[in-house]
Amino acid sequence: MATVTPLAKPKPAPLAKTAPLCSPLPAKGGAGGSIVVAGSMPAATKVAKPVKVVASPGRADARTHPQPLPKREGLDATLDGSWDRRLSRGLVAPESSIDLHGHSLSAAYDRLDRGLDQAIRQGDRVLLLITGKPPRPESERPHARGAIRAAVGDWLASSRHSDRIAAVRTAHPRHGGSGALYIVLRRPRAAPPRNS
């Protein structure tokens, strides 16, 4: 076994030059543009070589270090994982509820504003907002429904209490499912001590 010699590897054949798979668009205003089919490119046409982009030495490549996502603000803000899990499993019992089902839009808005005000004064953390089912697609409905549910997001975002709302989530089926929402309120901030 001392005389083992490796087998000779065949050399690969050189690659044939190919034409690009697409052709440039004809110039504007020129109705008689020619179409170039792949493989039939004239010999005089030159193909541009790819350009290698070099990052400056003091700057990291954006592909290797993605930028962090900006922190989400407002009603879409993310709660910590334990809150989201508990809400999605229906383990959080709302301290109070606001029922907008069956009200007109203006009456529902007033009821929502009064209910949020009362819940904040009482120190509640989780409210159950009963809105009714969300609107159905045009093809599935004989009558319009879900006007209150469609407007609630805008109402909450523009409410005088919007700075006190931490998040809004769809309720668990035991609390109304898609016909209700959880409104998670922020804890009241402690007033700084007065120096007299």
From TrEMBL:
Residues 1-22 are annotated as: Disordered. Residues 98-186 form the Smr domain. InterPro entries: Smr_dom (IPR002625), Smr_dom_sf (IPR036063). Residues 1-21 have a biased composition (Low complexity). The lineage of its organism: Bacteria, Pseudomonadati, Pseudomonadota, Alphaproteobacteria, Sphingomonadales. This is DNA mismatch repair protein MutS. PROSITE patterns: SMR.
